[in-house]
Write a structure and sequence with these properties.
disordered N terminus, five-stranded antiparallel sheet, alpha+beta, 12 strands, Nuclear Transport Factor 2, Chain: A, seven-stranded antiparallel sheet, 2 domains, disordered C terminus, elongated, 47% strand
Length: 255
Amino acid sequence: MENSKNIEGKIASYQAEKTVSERIEAAEEIDIDIETDVVKILQGQAEKVSVSGKGIVLKENIRVQEIQLQTDNITINPFRAIFGQIELNQPVNTVARVVLTKTDINLACTSDLIRSLVEKITLNVDGQIISFAPQNINIFLPGDGKIGCNATGLLKSEKNTHLLGVTVTCRPRNNSHPILLESVTCTEGEGISVELILAFMQKIKELANLPFLKWEDTAFRIIDMEVESEKIILMIEANVQPISESQIEFINQLQ
């Protein structure tokens, strides 16, 4: 019986790896391990699903150096699971370890996804709504647990638009302190008002205090961050929602 379980798990794992590989742009390495058997599959259950990968390109300019995640006792679609397609019937909570190199981060900063997210963030400066349209964003990791950012772009309000260049360094939140802003330096434009800095810090505080952020069908939050000289290691808690039949049909039409 144990050998039977191993064979079934290996078949499901292989098919799942094949399915996932077809839905991402590229991967240096990807390994999916499903622990299950025919009885559990027919009951719509899997004991454990583990995923690990290296050099995964999720979409254009969005790359992850390493990812490891595991979830236990998930509810799945039994008919699709027989063919290694792990389709969730219930939301799943999981914790993932994600490694992003400095190159990965700066590549992501050139993507339309990140630029559109930045443009959607607005600041309330003494009742005036201001947004930032980035032209260039460069993240640097100076060491000692710090994160730095050189950014240039257009600062937009209802009254005017002007060029702004800024260098910001900060320390991310950890168990001993909140997010700490270490320096803000204007590199281009007319300078930065105290009111703008305060509005920026208030927005960072609001985003940091959100219980979860949302990306596509996943709600997530960063529970720990380790900053090194060439990479950032994130521990992320995520809630993955099941994909509806209409979404599956739409995905299939695109393939």
